[in-house]
Amino acid sequence: MSLGIKKLTPEILANIALAIFAFILVVRFNRQYTTYAWIVAGLFVVYDIFHSWKNGLAILSEIHLKNLAVWGILAMYILFNLASLARLDSEDIHLTIAMTKFTLPLWLLLYINGKYDVQKGLIYGISLGALALTLVGAYQFIHHPVIGFRIISIFQTGNQFATMIALLLPFTVYGVYFFQNKLEKSFEIIVTLLLIGNLVLTRSRGGILGIAVAIVFSIIICALLLARSIGWKKIMTAILAAFIIAGSGAYVIGTINHERFKDPMNFNNGEERVLLWKASLRMWEDNKLLGIGISHFNDTYYSAKYHPKEGREKNLGVPHSTPLQFLACTGIVGLIGYLLHLLTTFVFTCQEVVNKRYRALAAAFLISFGAFTAQGLVDMTITSKTPAQLYFLLLGFFLSMILKNRKQG
Question: What's residue 166's pLDDT?
Answer without folding.
Answer: 95
